[in-house]
Specification:
The structure is a single chain. It contains no helices and 28 strands. With 369 residues, the protein is an all-beta fold. The chain folds into two domains: 267 residues, Tachylectin-2, Chain A; 89 residues, Jelly Rolls (Sandwich). β5 and β6 form a beta hairpin.
């Protein structure tokens, strides 16, 4: 294995697409027909953890270098993008019905569409990626921007509804920008939500993948974790997150030690409904804005430590307490909230207050029928 990797889950099969170096000395090639150095390959797994020794070499040409495969549920087919500034001088579109046999289509991103202020000629040389936003019905294509002043690798994007018309590229906006060099953007849609996550891969000399970023519109991003992986091994992030077979965890992967001969893939897991949290070591509280409640049915996703608990209180618009829960404890994704007393909650607008002591609040649901 060498270079860029993408993980996709189709039905109950995990597909790891990757670039293989064929154990040959790296060389630059000047034609699309002569590219013996690289293959685009695939291995599969039944559980996302143990991959079969069934490597398939899908094709061999200069598009292998940064080929990104994506499965579109909207179009019920695979879509691929690939191309570098050095050879193709743009990004080409590929299509496939099975993810194995790919048809090259037209060039979709040309040099005159990308952001200005670049000098490095290989501006598309990283793992460009593609995601779909079902709120605005656009596909977003992310690619590298080699900014000249100031000198920085960053991320630009174009969007399309139909893969015929594409917008001129714009830079993403990181609201709390830490000015880090971004080598690979690693952007994907988070499960069953309107949020997009990015795990940017820093340049290999920085020795680590550091940031986790989040966005609700594909354009404006916020860094929410600067220490996602803390050791100093050289790593590339594997593009994508996939659910475990039981849908209780998410898996994300890193391609570790890419400069050594026996490089390897590591898999990390995270509870699928616990990407963000509120924690109080000592008793504290958080109170929501007004919420329209149709009934008192509520569940909570929580985790309590020793002697920890969460209590929920519901207030009317005059800040009078209407309902108070029992102490909620445990490590549960959907704990049913039991209330003190028999007060019937009428449909109206209310405040919801969470009293938290040595516990984690991940999320809650309400208006359950």
């Amino acid at each position: 294995m060498n270079g860029y990797h993408t993980i996709i889950k189709i039905d109950n099969e995990y597909r790891l697409y990757f670039r293989s170096s064929n154990n040959l000395e790296f060389k630059y090639y000047t034609t699309e027909e002569s590219a013996a150095y690289e293959n685009f390959c695939l291995i599969t797994s039944d559980d996302g953890l143990t991959f079969k020794k069934n490597k398939k070499e899908l094709f061999q040409n200069l598009f292998c270098h940064n080929f990104f495969p994506y499965y579109s549920t909207q179009q019920n087919k695979f879509i691929g993008i690939s191309g570098t500034g050095m050879f193709q001088k743009g990004i080409y579109l590929f299509e496939s019905n099975d993810g194995f046999n790919w048809d090259k289509k037209e060039k979709i991103i040309k040099e005159d569409m990308i952001c200005n202020n670049w000098t490095h000629p290989n501006h598309f040389d990283s793992l460009n990626c593609l995601v779909y936003n079902d709120i605005d019905n656009f596909y977003y294509i992310y690619m590298r921007h080699n900014n000249n002043i100031p000198l920085r690798r960053f991320v630009q994007f174009s969007k399309t509804r139909d893969f015929v018309n594409f917008t001129k590229c714009k830079l993403i906006n990181i609201i709390n920008d830490d000015k880090t060099q971004i080598y690979i953007s690693g952007i994907f849609k988070y499960f069953n939500s309107n949020y997009f996550l990015s795990i940017p891969t820093l340049h290999i000399n920085d020795k680590a993948v550091k940031n986790l970023m989040i966005s609700d519109n594909n354009v404006d991003w916020v860094i929410i974790d600067n220490n996602l992986i803390s050791d100093d091994k050289p790593r590339y992030i594997v593009q994508g997150m996939v659910p475990s077979l039981d849908n209780k965890k998410i898996y994300f992967y890193t391609f570790d030690e890419p400069d050594i001969k026996n490089s390897y893939i590591s898999c990390y897991s995270y509870p699928i409904h616990r990407i963000n949290k509120i924690y109080c070591k000592e008793e504290g509280f958080i109170k929501t804005k007004i919420i329209n409640l149709s009934n008192s049915s509520m569940t909570i996703n929580l985790e309590t430590n020793e002697n920890g608990y969460i209590i929920i209180e519901i207030y009317d618009q005059a800040n009078n307490i209407i309902l108070k829960s029992n102490k909620l404890i445990g490590n549960e994704f959907n704990l049913i909230v039991n209330w003190e007393g028999q007060t019937i909650l009428e449909k109206n607008n209310y405040y919801v207050k969470f009293i938290i002591n040595n516990a984690y609040l991940y999320s809650f649901t309400y208006n359950i029928k």
